[in-house]
Design a protein that fits this description.
Helix content is 80%, strand content 0%. The chain contains 22 helices and no strands. Helix 5 runs antiparallel to helix 6. It is elongated, with a radius of gyration of 26 Å.
Length: 469
């Protein structure tokens, strides 16, 4: 042990020994003194946070004490748990510490602080803290505890008569159900939340729930309903002046355009969304939108621009701790590398993407990455591996409720089967995949796949399975 480490070790032991020598009452008074001194040094006591489930509680103005809020809350905890004044002040500083951690993208720390606040709070404040803990858990891919937090929050609110708060939590639960592939539960919760918000006259919340419904309808292949919901949500959000939510909804609408072959409309809409995200400093959504914009560039053949956007998106996801979307973006970059014949780099990226997808429980993204890996195996002639990997991907798509990826990859599965001499199995997969893609209106994918099938059939000397062949 070198001298510096020895000093640190002994200093910690001496400090703890000196601390334990103090009587409990004296320790409490010292913690209260430390709290008072620190609070004064960092700018005094901040104002009370707005009530639970306020219209936009995330916009609470930062205070100079916020970076020290957790330390202040800890001093209050040791100053005397049973004192009402200490408990109220501790709740204030836990709230501020949680918000500061969220603003700093320290999601795990924020979750821990919201849980601590929920243990201290009652009623709506407790329900709100649980909802926020659930959102943090969801962001880090821990879906089971996230769902438990949302359910606990709803149980508190059930008899409260606060329909607006219930709508907020139930809408978040709908998003979680959608992310975990439970489409029926997602739609049921989203519709119930929407009706609660509409009955309460909460226009911004109603619009956000409509936006979530639009995403759900898109995932289910109900593209007309998806577009209608998202356009109506945009109208409401613009009327309310909610720029942050407007940017998110524009990104969602662009997803409908991209999936239905309207690449130019998708690109314009994503550019508008990106400008809004940057104007309101929404870094997390900026990263997601850059990843989506990369896909429009990729579809239009601008691979260098697509790669730049994806790399920037990945940097932002890492900056804000958004591992869920980091895994997805790594898979997209691997697909781009596959298309540009950088096979070894693509394989390494798929391995990284799958590790993150599995770690955070993102089954939808895992299925997409598995399918991309199967395509890589097909391109490099490893057909048996391609077939097995694509079968695994299709099973994940079905489990996760990802119908669009399932349709695309049924066609890709057929492209694997043709050179294996399994023409009848290929024909069935091809027929099912094409029919589903037509239902989605995905004309861009249809054209590329039909050309690929015609080429695959020509190479093995059989008539094309494509109706245009």
């Amino acid at each position: 042990m070198n001298a510096e480490l020895a000093y640190v070790f002994r200093h910690a032991l001496l400090r703890d020994a000196a601390y334990q020598l103090q009587l409990p009452g004296d320790r409490g008074r010292l913690h209260k003194l430390a709290f008072s001194v620190i609070e004064e040094l960092v700018g005094g006591r901040p104002a009370e946070i707005s009530p639970a489930f306020a219209d936009d509680p995330g916009t609470a103005r930062p205070h100079a004490a916020d970076p020290f809020a957790e330390e202040l809350a800890e001093h209050l905890r040791f100053a005397g748990e049973g004192e009402a004044e200490n408990s109220a002040l501790r709740a204030l500083y836990l709230d501020r510490a949680g918000r500061h951690s969220e603003r700093s993208y320290q999601t795990r720390s924020a979750e821990r602080l919201w849980i601590a606040l929920s243990d201290l709070a009652q009623g709506a404040r407790k329900a709100e803290a649980l909802r926020k803990a659930g959102i943090c858990a969801q962001r880090t891919g821990r879906m089971k505890p996230a769902e438990e937090f949302f359910e606990q929050s709803l149980a508190i609110l059930h008899d409260s008569g606060d329909r607006r708060a219930r709508a907020l939590v139930q809408g978040q639960l709908a998003v979680l159900c959608s992310l975990t592939g439970r489409s029926e539960a997602a739609e049921r919760n989203a519709k119930e939340a929407f009706l609660l918000a509409r009955a309460e006259g909460a226009r911004s919340q109603e619009a956000l729930l409509l936006s979530n419904l639009g995403n759900l309808f898109r995932d289910l292949g109900r593209m007309k309903e998806a577009e209608q919901s998202l356009v109506e949500a945009l109208f409401l959000l613009r009327a309310e002046g909610n720029r942050r939510a407007e940017g998110i909804t524009l990104s969602n609408l662009a997803g409908v355009f991209l999936q239905t072959g309207r690449t130019e409309s998708a690109e314009r809409t994503l550019a508008d969304a990106l400008a809004i995200h940057r104007s309101v400093s929404n870094r997390a959504s900026e990263g997601v939108t850059l990843g989506n914009l990369a896909m429009t560039h990729f579809q239009s053949g601008r691979t260098e621009l697509a790669e730049r956007c994806l790399r920037e998106a990945i940097d932002i996801h890492r900056e804000v701790g958004n591992r869920r979307y980091e895994g997805h973006a790594l898979g997209d970059l691997a697909g781009l590398f596959t298309e540009t014949s950088r096979i070894e780099q693509a394989a390494a990226l798929y391995a990284d993407a799958l590790m993150i997808d599995r770690d955070v429980g993102n089954r939808r993204s895992e299925g997409i990455a598995m399918a991309g890996l199967a395509i890589l195996y097909r391109i490099t002639g490893r057909l048996a591996m391609a077939r097995q990997t694509m079968k695994e991907a299709l099973a994940i798509h079905q489990e996760a409720g990802d119908r669009h990826s399932g349709a695309l990859n049924r066609c890709e599965y057929a492209l694997i089967l043709v050179p294996l001499g399994l023409a009848e199995e290929a024909r069935e997969a091809w027929r099912e995949g094409l029919a589903a893609l037509r239902g989605f209106g995905d004309t861009a994918s249809l054209g590329k796949l039909e050309a690929a099938m015609a080429d695959a059939c020509t190479k093995v000397g059989i008539p094309s399975l494509s109706p245009r062949g």
